[in-house]
């Protein structure tokens, strides 16, 4: 019974601290989205990496063959074409996921619908701390 009271007390303390440190109307997320030109804010990649990892020019990740799919809709790919995308996706390093998705967007290449869930799962598994390249300092 005492353990339950300690747990309840700890929850109350944590909740109080969180409530006191939370700043309603914090505009930091909005500022980050506005700082990234061309980011609509609807994609997890844009929201997390809008100003750091995304280049102004498309970056190729040994995926030049995907340029032939430019202008196609995300649901129009055959199984063989889907495997071409999948081969590239699973050879990427975790910190290359966000720039690769951005590069596809800049090149006018829609990621296949079937692959989007796999991409988001890899992206989430990599975690935000691992997705930014380590500095050489």
How does the SSE layout of this entry go?
Elements: H1 2-21, H2 28-35, H3 44-49, H4 79-89, H5 97-106, H6 113-126, H7 128-131
Question: What is the structure about, briefly put?
Answer:
This protein is mostly helical. The chain has seven helices and no strands.
Which percent range fits the helix content?
40-55%
For the sheet with most strands, the description reads: none
Beta-strand content: under 5%
What is the residue-mean pLDDT, rounded to a whole number? 76
What is the terminal separation in angstroms?
52 Å
Q: Using only CA atoms, what is the Rg?
A: 20 Å
H/I helix tally? 7
Provide an overview of this structure.
There is one protein chain. The chain is mainly alpha-helical. It has a domain at 40-131. 53% of the residues lie in helices and 0% in strands. It contains seven helices and no strands. The radius of gyration is 20 Å and the shape is elongated. The chain starts with a helix and ends in a 6-residue tail after the last helix. Residues 29-37, 47-52 and 128-132 have low confidence and may be disordered.
